[in-house]
């Protein structure tokens, strides 16, 4: 009997003293960021429109963002990108030479009768791929857009098939393209899709450079002047105008505005405005309202508590952030917060015990959570007296 008791004690004590402790979970003390004030913005009164952050995925504001409408010469952005996918140009490259011929003169004659934006062309003139892109994106000459497309794809049908594939691969389901110029009103887009197209265009270094170019000298044809009269005003940096007599003025634009001392890059689209003078003024008003509606939201304050621990043996500690963090938010754009706090057994002051993540409009701020005090092993006497809390099987 005594031997059995000694054996039991000899087994009990080592298991109890050496067994792992049951983890202690935190009690949450997380607080959502303060609600932001209602948004006040000035989208264009005429037409349909959308506005988003250049580096985001969502829209900041919209009116009819999912309605498809003729996009006119904004089409030429797609033409340039689809050509560049087939014949990419590295930095500093000019690409192959393209000789103008009778077909190119025919484009001029056809588009002249249709009242399109044109540049003179003569059989025998030669342009590099880059030069054709410069003419198309800066001057918006319809005949040169067709020349560029014909060189790359041989026909409008082939170009349209390539464009459909390109658009589908990038999830741009809101855009339909049947020809490379934009004179056909069946070339349509939603403002939301155009905002995403603008983000893609600006990610291409050559396209991004050309859409912000105001003037350019070109052999044979002379000085090219960008059709976007907003360039260089109110932070506008691009991208492409569009006009169809029966469908009004359109604009896919990019801009960089200063808000609370921080630069904010935007992409917007307006389709079907009355005319470009009205459209330009309304875009300037919109940009001013965007600047006015950006504000700083405090996410965390130094030593803010997001959770607390109390162990069965009486140790206590908090999970805190060590820094004050904030986020610049536009209007009443919501901020979501996710708090993940680890369970602990023993740990030291300053150990990382979790993470709080704030997300809003494509922005993400991650703030580590650390422990305020040591959580120590309770010691042998407590372990012996509380076998059910160690080892897990008692």
The portion of residues assigned to helices is 25-40%
Write the element-wise H/E pattern from the N-terminal end onward: HEEEEHEHEHHHEEHHEEEEEHEEEEEEEH
How many strand segments?
Answer: 20
Which residues form runs of ≥5 with pLDDT under 50?
1-12
Distance between the termini: 23 Å
Q: Characterize the biggest β-sheet.
A: 6 strands, antiparallel
User: What percentage of amino acids are in beta strands?
Assistant: 25-35%
The first-level CATH class name of the largest domain: Alpha Beta
- Based on CA inertia axes, which overall geometry fits? elongated
**CATH architecture verdict of the largest domain:** 3-Layer(aba) Sandwich
Summing up helix and strand content along with how strands pair, one would put the structural category as alpha+beta
Radius of gyration of CA atoms, rounded to a whole number = 31 Å
Strand order of the largest sheet: 1-15-16-20-19-18
Instruction: Give the overall average pLDDT.
Output: 91
CATH homologous superfamily identity of the largest domain: DD-peptidase/beta-lactamase superfamily
